[in-house]
Amino acid sequence: MSRRILSHLLSIRSVTYMPRPGDGTPRAVTLIPGDGIGPLVTGAVEQVMEAMHAPVYFEKYDIHGDMKSAPPEVIESIKKNKVCLKGGLRTPVGGGVSSLNMLLRKELDLYASLVHCFNLQGLPTRHHGVDIVVIRENTEGEYSGLEHEVVPGVVESLKVITKFCSERIAKYAFEYAYLNNRKKVTAVHKANIMKLADGLFLESCREIASKYPSIQYNEMIVDNCSMQLVSKPEQFDVMVTPNLYGNLVANIAAGIAGGTGVMPGGNVGADHAIFEQGASAGNVGDEKAVEQKKANPVALLLSSAMMLRHLQFPSFADRLETAVKRVISEGEYRTKDLGGSSTTQEVVDAVIANLD
């Protein structure tokens, strides 16, 4: 029996998903193509969704990272639909312009960022057995945006850590681990130096950990964590972090597992969710990829599978994820970042051809 047939037999659901009446009603999703490669990769998702006849339709808004704020109609659309799919928004460096990504997260209280970094079969990487979920607090810490010039030449930037936000991100991480049969949660910190701020974060994690005795809990200083990630990444399962550390850790983990072009992710709060490429690491502004139309759509396609599960369309999510993984495994169609020369459209066509 061939490996592909065996894999197919093992993947067949033995227990059916029983929807509630009306669950098949098409759902509206706010779509923000964004900047750089964003329109290319969101366009890829639109094509695949149409080919699958997925029960979603998009409300598209043209906003960009250099805007001072998100137009009210965009916020209203996300609040109404509760789900958004987003390409990257270019964040200006310096100049006093706030990050639109941050403004969206704060406006919608998307307090948890989730990035899934894992090995894809057929994609060669230095490390094997990598399957890491980085859960990052999204609304405070070094990203609080509280900066001012005390006197000329002296700038003060405030890092804000609260018990409320620390507890809810810790609870989300342990809840995720529990619901997804994960065995361990690692809290990443710098409490040896920032004893009060990161100390409060750790204290909150410990309190929540005590309520989940079946899940192993450990703590790791962020600099040691970075070294451990590049030397023994397979030791990590779920990681929970304050804001800045999570950004760094997620991008390191993505680089280890195959690159930012294949890692899905999203941001979620109590009422709303935005799905996007899990780790950006500067490729939003890859002008060459835009010009040659060779941006990698895999990360956003896998994020879209996450979105479909979030919307309670599990079989569509399974079909999309299986098709993407099959294309990666077969290796014929890959963009430049994965060692190939395919265009975005060629990868999309291959994914559509592999849909069951």
Structure description:
By secondary structure, the chain is α/β, with parallel strands linked by helices. It contains twelve helices and twelve strands. Strands 2-1-3-12-11-4-5-10-8-9 form a ten-stranded mixed beta sheet, with helices on both faces. β1, α2 and β2 (56-60) form a beta-alpha-beta unit.
How many extended strands?
A: 12
Rg result: 20 Å
- One letter per element, helices H and strands E, the order comes to HEHEHEHEEEEHEHEHEHEEHHHH
User: In percent, how helical is the residue content?
Assistant: 40-55%
Short recap of the structure:
This protein has 356 residues and is of the alpha/beta class.
Strand and helix map with partners:
Blueprint: H1 3-11, E1 27-32, H2 38-52, E2 56-60, H3 72-81, E3 83-86, H4 100-107, E4 112-118, E5 131-137, E6 147-151, E7 154-157, H5 163-179, E8 184-189, H6 197-209, E9 216-221, H7 222-231, E10 238-241, H8 243-257, E11 264-268, E12 273-277, H9 287-292, H10 298-310, H11 314-330, H12 344-353
List keywords for this structure.
single chain; 356 residues; alpha/beta; two-stranded antiparallel sheet; 12 strands; 18% strand; globular
